[in-house]
Amino acid sequence: MNKSKGSFWEFFQGLGKTFMLPVALLAFMGLILGIGSSFTSATTIEIMPFLGNDYLQVIFRFLSTIGGFAFTYLPVLFAMAIPLGLARYDKGVAAFSGLVGYIIMNLSINFYLTEANLLADTEALREAGQGMVMGIQTLEMGVLGGIIVGIIVSSLHKQFFEIQLPDAFAFFGGARFVPIITSIVLGLVGLLLPLIWPIFGAAIMGIGNLIQRAGVFGPFLFGAGERLLLPTGLHHILVSMIRFTEAGGTQIVDGNTVSGALNIFYAQLQSGVEISPSATAFLSQGKMPTFMFGLPAVALAMYKTARPENRSKIKGLLISGVLATFVTGITEPVEFLFLFVAPLLYLFHVIMTGLGFMVMALLTVKIGNTDGGILDFLIFGVLQGSETKWYLVVLVGILWFAIYYFVFKYAIVKFNLKTPGREVYTTEYSQEELGHKKKGKYDAPVILSALGGAANIASLDNCVTRLRLVVNNMDEINEDVLKENGVLGVMKLDDQNLQVIIGTQVATLKNQIERLIN
Q1: Residue 334 within any structural domain of the chain
Q2: Can you tell me the distance from the alpha carbon of 410 to that of 14, in angstroms, rounded to the nearest whole number?
Q3: Among 463, 467, 481, 482, which one carries the catalytic annotation?
Q4: Residue 426, in any domain of the structure
Q5: 295-351, pLDDT tens digit by residue?
């Protein structure tokens, strides 16, 4: 039972982590698209006439063109990124097989539709639920099609990457067999999907209708739910559904049917049509009151309530956390400073985040993209003109700053919460055991030892801010030593699955530990 539970957590956390590779590219390309579109808009040119120069406009149109790349090819990016992220060995083969599987699945769907005389005319593609994917007329599955391929390919890769075939066929064995078996399996899947896809579509539409019927509470449910799931690492799945599937809404943009809040926003941005507030209600704008104002207020409250002799010690930690959330929208370095010592304050944070989404939607603010930091605010808010109502973010943000600051300061003092800097440090461990953390560098050998050593680690991976581990014996984990070496938090999800919250330097630390293990 524990093994089954552990496998469940390992799979879904790993799946959520793989989403970050295409989403990170999408966010960056979105910034390029935002810059290009903002400097080609008539409003911006009217304010700054020099931007109307023909040569500058060519450059800005070029930025808009390449910025739309990730939006156009997002499903195939997921099909490659999921097996790449889930594979432990031969990652390149896994990604290659994802591309092969995605193309063959759509070719197979096209074959079925052709043989069954179900191919729709070009003018009726939308009504028939069909579309063009890499030049192939197929079912319009969006990013979910890429996710299906990615999950299947990762399973095939895990099962067959070490297969040994008879000598006569040995050339096709091992890693070479993965794209071969992928071709066969995804070909068959492509024949079945036209029969079962209506079930998937109905499920997604059901979730979308639930959120849409919630009216102004829809953005609240999404924002609060995303923060509530964040400690488990499963929030990426909810976010991806809203951003890339019908659950986030469906609109016709420039004659094309587009589903998913982020897809709709990018399509409208690229086409130069009016941005829809019903789409941006689930995007960056909802995060901004909390990310740009609320969490910095939390850091200030923790600094002000710290023991005077400890403030200089925690200043760097708090400043780095504020910069991460304010600029990039990476919030864990601040959130995990109070999540474990004050769960009720985290629940307050969940509610305030949901309210931020709801208030921005009620005010019909129109700022899209993914991160919720200052870059999104400037590029997709200020530079797009006053019609985005970017100034309301500042007004609401000031209110959020005051609420967060006074609530956190009162709670920390009233209940004597041991947030950073308030504890009186005593230790039974030697300095050699605790290691040394200087200038943001982690002592990988000490952290590995505190994790129970190489023999205790069955699986090691990372997401944006945390190590994700499957361990053989959870009793071997030494939380005290981990925290004394800069770890922000330790989450034991079950008897095998462990998350160690590090911050933005997690990838470097993971690589160092991996080298020590090997």
Answers
A1: yes
A2: 38
A3: 463
A4: no
A5: 999 999 999 998 888 888 778 778 877 887 887 777 877 887 787 778 899 999 999
